[in-house]
Amino acid sequence: MCSAAVEARLKPCPARGKQGGELVKREGAQFPCGVQCRACGWTTDFVKLPSIAVKLWNEAQRKTK
């Protein structure tokens, strides 16, 4: 995890609308932080800062048919 305090600000999943987003960290990567939905697997791009990953997640638009 990158930061539990940052994770508390996550909106519902942009893909499915469920509460299930969590910050994930790839150790040793140039861009280690991303947000992934535990329910469906939808993931943001990986970036350097947890706050940017949360911003990408919260600003992603839910796709409607």
Strand content: 15-25%
Q: Indicate the multimeric state.
A: single chain
What is the domain tally? 1
- Main beta sheet, described? 2 strands, antiparallel
- Whole-angstrom Rg: 11 Å
Strand order of the largest sheet: 1-2
Through-space gap between termini: 33 Å
Number of strands: 2
Describe what this molecule looks like in 3D.
With 65 residues, this protein is α+β, with helices and mostly antiparallel strands. It has one domain (4-59). The protein contains 2 helices and 2 strands; from the N terminus they run αββα. Strands 1-2 form a two-stranded antiparallel sheet. Strand 1 (21-25) and strand 2 (33-37) form a beta hairpin. The longest helix is centred in the last third of the chain and has 10 residues, at 50-59.
Question: What can be said about this structure in brief?
Answer:
By secondary structure, the chain is α+β, with helices and mostly antiparallel strands.
